[in-house]
Amino acid sequence: MPGWPSVGRAEDHELVEALRRADTDAPAKLYDSYGERLHDYAASFAQDLAADAVHDALVTAQGCVHRLKEPARMRAWLYALTRFQVRARMSRRTPVDGVPLPELEAQEDSELTDLVHETLGELSRNEREVLELSLRHGLTPAEVGAALGLTSRQAAGRLARARDHLENAAAAVVLARTGRAHCPDLSAMLDGCEGPLTPLLRRRLSGHISGCEVCTEGRHRQVSAAKLLDLVPVAFPPISLRRRVIDTCVNPERDQARTLITDRGDSFDRTGFPVAVEPRSRRRRPRRLAPVLLAGACVLAVTGAMVVINGRDVSTGTPLRSAPSPSSPAVSLDPGEESPAPDPSPEEDELTPAPTPTPSRTPATRATPVERPSARHAAGPTPTRRRPAPAARLRTSCPKAIDGAAKIGLGARNAAVSWVATASQGLDVFPASGSIKAGGSVAIWVTIVDPNAAGRGRVAFTSNGGSASCSLSWDGDGPDTADPTDEPTNSSEPTPSPSVTTSAENSETLEG
Fold first, then answer.
1. What is the per-residue pLDDT across 157-201, written as a single tens digit (0 to 9) for each?
2. Which of 17, 117, 195, 222 has fewest C-beta within 10 Å?
3. How, if at all, do strands 393-397 and 507-509 pair?
4. DSSP string of 244-277?
5. Positive or negative CA dihedral for 186, 189, 195, 200?
6. DSSP 361
């Protein structure tokens, strides 16, 4: 892509080493290599946020380069940091419907220019990102996947779908002018058509081109998605951005600002890539007793209760006799059981062992233990009953709607929680696992594999704090003429609107 310097993979490795050595000229080399292209990528989200996002991303890269485990992934890491910064700023804005479209430069072929603008608007945000990072910025599928939280296979699949959609739409215009002599069916569809193509006719031609071998060959020969993206002008950064980045990185007077920037973006996974995390409470939770001590206290408490209820010595199995005290109360049995004899008097209780309840056909509930004042009835010193520590609980916050991508919140209550996410077919989730400190929370992203087709999916969470799930449904936003291989839908029933339900099994909903 003309307009910014090309950087080789070997130069990426040298740049990482210079940043780790804290060379004085390393921030300048970092900006000169990637500042313009990162600004162009950030401007595809929001033009007015791009400069500040790139500034903070490069400052974070200079201060946190030691977190990057693989220097070969430097390029994907920088794009991931930029994406993290610009999305963090966008999350503080009032959400708006739709995806912003890039402004296109005036070209001689206005019909093709308008078509590219319209077709890019038909793609989802994720598909456009994959298309731009792959064809405009030169990232490999593995690098695109690392920057967006996808596998290389998922990135390659989305790139193929987005490229085909853009090239088929453009080929309808190009082949309508030059391909009539090569394909009789195409010529018949264009019979009597003069001037620019109507949207309906263009969609019909695009569907024909995707299934015609002759037209597909012509598309590969005359249409290139990378050249079509050249119609989108480069969003160059302001001249002052380079000076701001270098000054923040090397000026000792900017130490406090540099620390604030790196702390604000200090949320990385094990490979060093940024992860979006919700603000966590800084209050410390009181320490709880160890589970082993709690289990021992519970065992002692249950043993003492069994001795009092059954009136027997647990070690020998012999009945215990009541002390000769007229104020000693009788053993309280379950009110659901019928006693064949009236309550014995204190004198009879002294000579007669406590009766054992006769088994009945209906299961009896546990008897209520009654305290005896005599030391003979105790199997040992009465343990001090402590209130057991609350178990770890996983809290979830499902999105109200999903449009290409959405955020699911997870939180840990009472104790730390380790969780694993599993997405059903049609959905991708990132990250797929992690751990949360007690009182903390994280955010994960769930994306639709094929936003052009309506569907339903489910993201399930399992953890030591219980399980939870988010069920999602979405409307397809593809063109009117769907591929005949798509799953059929019942046209007589209305398409379900995006809805979200959350499983309440062993989970709690995040407040707010």
1. 999 999 988 988 888 888 887 767 788 888 888 887 777 778 888
2. 195
3. parallel
4. HHHHHHH-GGGHHHHHHHHHHT--B-TTS-B---
5. negative
6. S
Under 8 Å between Cβ of 107 and 231: yes
Report the Cα–Cα distance between both ends of the chain, in Å, rounded: 45
Nearest to 409 by CA among 270, 271, 279, 272: 279
Tokens for 32?
């000169």
Cα separation, 394 vs 468, in Å, equals 8
Distance of CA 158 to CAs 84, 153, 329, 448, 487, Å? 21, 9, 78, 11, 18
Report the distance separating Cα 438 and Cα 127, nearest Å: 36
Question: Tokens standing for 16?
Answer: 């990482």
Three-state SS for 461?
strand
At 216 the three-state DSSP class reads helix
For the range 267-274, what are the long-range contacts, defined as Cβ-Cβ under 8 Å and sequence gap of 24 or more? 268/64, 268/67, 269/431, 269/434, 270/69, 271/68, 271/69, 271/70, 271/73, 272/64, 272/67, 272/68, 272/69, 272/70, 272/77, 273/76, 273/77, 273/80, 273/146, 274/80, 274/81, 274/84
Residue 482's contacts (CB-CB under 8 Å, 6 or more residues apart) are 452, 453, 476
Buried b (16+ CB within 10 A) or exposed e, 269-278: eeebbbbbbe
Contact by Cβ (8 Å): 80, 273: yes
How many helices, marked H, and strands, marked E, lie in the chain?
Answer: 16, 10
Bridging pattern class, strands 507-509 and 466-474:
unpaired
Rounded to 5 degrees, φ, ψ at 3 are 120, -20
> Reduced to 3 DSSP states, what percent helix, strand and coil does the chain have, rounded to the nearest 5?
45, 15, 45
Q: Which residues contact 385 (CB under 8 A, 6 or more apart)?
A: 297, 301
